[in-house]
Design brief:
233 residues; membrane; 2 domains; transmembrane helix; transmembrane; DUF4191; 4-stranded mixed beta sheet; DUF4191 domain-containing protein; alpha+beta
Length: 233
């Protein structure tokens, strides 16, 4: 029992510190966060307290109002903090990968499965909706990356639906703050075992590509493949 209480006491300062850090980060982008939270808490508590006086139970309604005010404040704070975080991440390289890591259970994310010299990148997520390719970068250039990645996967997972999304604020693009919601709205067509099998096949494809003994840079003139090397079929 003593060990459990000690661990809980040690965890509380960490949570409070994290909340304080989140508040400071949110306040940089949202200057009114303090006033908004105070207004939500005071108004919620005041409404329930007033109702309590009207019906003759100010103590009970006051306690209930305090708890609901705390809950409402926490919900508003979470949403505004999330909005501020997305605003700071917008346009930053790798922002889509960070969102994909927090989509939820049942999704397996592989960042940067394709990239070009201009640092346009394609990330891959696998879940019950199938395979989702998420691209960030120049819309015209990433289309070629998406097409090449689809062609490569078609040889191994031809029976799995593939969705492609381009993160951005233009036409036919998905804003970063709506990426998670968009993915969760995709229809679920695969079972758990099918998702696992798809991940295994894609992982094997990646392992085969990473383990191929190809030299970096251009191949020297006159160099021949060893006799024991892989054969083309």
């Amino acid at each position: 029992m003593a060990r459990k209480e000690t661990a809980a006491d040690a965890a509380n300062p960490g949570r409070l510190k994290q909340i304080a850090l989140t508040y400071k980060m949110t306040r940089r982008a949202d200057k009114k966060i303090g006033l908004v939270l105070a207004a939500v808490g005071i108004v919620t508590f005041g409404v329930f307290l007033a109702i309590g006086f009207l019906i003759g139970h100010p103590i009970y309604l006051g306690i209930l109002g305090f708890l609901l005010a705390f809950l409402a404040t926490a919900i508003v704070f979470g949403r505004r903090a999330e909005r501020a975080a997305f605003g700071q991440m917008e346009g930053q390289p790798g922002a889509a990968a960070a969102v994909l890591d927090n989509v939820g259970r049942g999704w397996t994310t592989t960042p940067a499965v394709a990239m070009n010299r201009s640092q346009d990148v394609v990330h891959r997520a696998v879940g019950k909706a199938g395979i989702v390719l998420v691209a960030e970068g120049n819309p015209n250039r990433v289309k070629g990356l998406l097409a090449a990645e689809k062609k490569k996967m078609a040889r191994i997972v031809a029976d799995v639906p593939v969705h492609d999304l381009i993160v951005g604020t233009g036409d036919e693009q998905v804003p970063l703050k709506r990426l998670r919601t968009t993915m969760l709205k995709l229809p679920r067509v695969l079972t758990g075992p099918q998702v696992t099998a798809t991940n295994d096949r894609l992982r094997a494809m990646g392992d085969l590509m990473s383990n191929m003994p190809l030299p970096k840079g251009p191949m020297p003139k006159g160099m021949r493949m060893p006799r024991g090397g892989p054969k083309l079929r």
